[in-house]
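Entry 12.
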Amino acid sequence: MKWFTAAALMVIVAATSTLSAQWPLHPDDIPKGPDGRPALTAPTPRTADGKPDFSGVWMIAASPDTRSLPFQPWAADLQKKRAAENGLNDPDGLCMPQGPLQYHVDPQPLKMVQTPKQIVIIYESNYGLRTIYMDGRTLPPLGGPQPFWHGYSIGRWDGDTLVVESNNFHGVDPKQLRGAEPDSFHGVGWLDHRGSPYTEAMTLTERFRRVNYGQLEIDMTVDDPVAYTKPFTLRVTQRIVADGSEMIEFICHENQMFLKLTGRAPR
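Predicted 3D structure (tokens):
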């Protein structure tokens, strides 16, 4: 069963990578070097109001190591159980919305659409969609709105850095743990693909910095006192997709075999 789970996840990723060549290329007018190739170290592009422009399609370049996170004891136990199951209840394989770090480090691209009052991030993986409100609103109190799979996000500028704060995530409740992970936890509260959990108490702060034309750095600070003993920061590096590739449509449940392969398909 464990082997089937890992294999199914590999098939999903491999299929996505293969399909990425199906859309026709539509190259942007990007800076070129003397050799005619994209000048990825050219200066950061800017919007009409002078802010860094994060628009474009991005692909993971470097991901953080999450093997030594400052877990609370119950969270450490849950992470070990999830890891031992080889991703059996990972939201990626279950075709559910993924955790915030999962979306940033998956091998499928993401697309940022930037306007003065909203920034939208579209993730090809599991067709995730986030809205970051840039209109000056404040972060709602915990428990104010219903929990969101992607959290409720507001953004502001700190110089050339985009600071995004998010809360009211749909996370796990440790009070429901009774030795085994209940069905209500399946696909819920996965920070990474190792199964590191988060709860509805989590506040996430992301600092986006476009270093140059081709590189985007995202520093993600997790503050969840229920699941972790202290806040911690992880860095993700993305690179621009400069050949004109666009994201493909990702409908996870279409021809999805994961539940069938693991014996959990509806009968």
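Annotation: The radius of gyration is 19 Å. Strands lie at 56-62, 110-114, 118-123, 128-133, 152-158, 161-167, 203-210, 215-223, 232-240.
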